[in-house]
Write a structure and sequence with these properties.
Radius of gyration: 39 Å
Structural class: mainly alpha
Number of domains: 2
Strand content: under 5%
Number of strands: 2
Distance between the termini: 77 Å
Order of helices and strands: HEHHHHE
Shape: elongated
Largest sheet: 2 strands, parallel
Number of helices: 5
CATH architecture of the largest domain: Up-down Bundle
CATH class of the largest domain: Mainly Alpha
Strand order of the largest sheet: 1-2
CATH topology of the largest domain: Four Helix Bundle (Hemerythrin (Met), subunit A)
Length: 220
């Protein structure tokens, strides 16, 4: 075979090899591209599924991470525990005279004893409010602002009540002339009105916490 023929044959074979390799690479790239397309489609499907799940959760409440919720729930525990004490002390102030009267004990208390009892109850409520205020403020970053605002309304309302009670005791202190029951009616009416408003605000705080507990949906 002549050199020219040999050269032509080599060139033809080389061209065939290049064509086959090029074709193979193109087919491989096309196959890889198709696989990538399928992978992307699968990923998109998974993302869409997660979004739909979150939408469903949000339609029934707020989705919150378990880590965030653990902190928020601990805040509610502290607030609720202190709020129970505030409620009990408030109700005690509103009802202690009626309770004593029902037991026929009120008539046995002189003016000084009644003032002392009122003073002790006012101080107990004041201590409960201090604990409640600490729970509200210390946990402020970890629960919704509207709940905190309602709690602050309770604090302000009951602080005013305590100040009024203590001022009354000072004005009619031990050894001073005590008002008669008739004279006490206007003061008791005002006191009972303040207590009624405060108890309603306490219920608002409790309701806000309950609604929050019922609306949260956890995700990891």
């Amino acid at each position: 075979m002549s050199d020219a023929s040999t050269t032509s044959l080599i060139t033809a074979v080389a061209s065939l090899i290049v064509a086959l390799v090029t074709g193979g690479l193109t087919q491989w790239n096309r196959s890889k591209a198709n696989k990538n397309a399928f992978d992307i489609q699968d990923l998109k499907g998974a993302v869409d599924s997660d979004l739909e799940r979150l939408k469903a959760e949000l339609s029934h409440g707020q989705a919150v991470s378990s880590t965030q919720w653990n902190v928020e729930f601990a805040a509610y525990q502290a607030i609720w525990q202190s709020l129970v004490s505030v409620r009990n002390q408030t109700v005690e102030i509103a009802t202690w005279e009626q309770s004593m009267e029902a037991l026929n004990l009120l008539s046995h208390l002189d003016a000084d004893a009644r003032l002392k009892s009122l003073y002790e109850r006012a101080k107990s409520l004041d201590a409960a409010l201090t604990t409640f205020a600490r729970a509200v403020q210390d946990n402020a970053p970890f629960y919704p602002q509207n709940t905190r605002h309602t709690a602050i309304v309770v604090l302000n309302q009951l602080r005013s009540l305590v100040e009024g009670l203590l001022s009354f005791v000072v004005a009619h202190g031990i050894g001073k002339e005590f008002w008669t029951d008739e004279q006490l009616i206007p003061w008791r009416t005002l006191r009972d009105q303040e207590i009624e408003v405060a108890l309603k605000e306490i219920e608002c705080v409790e309701t806000a916490i309950r609604e929050r507990l019922g609306s949260v949906r956890l995700f990891d």
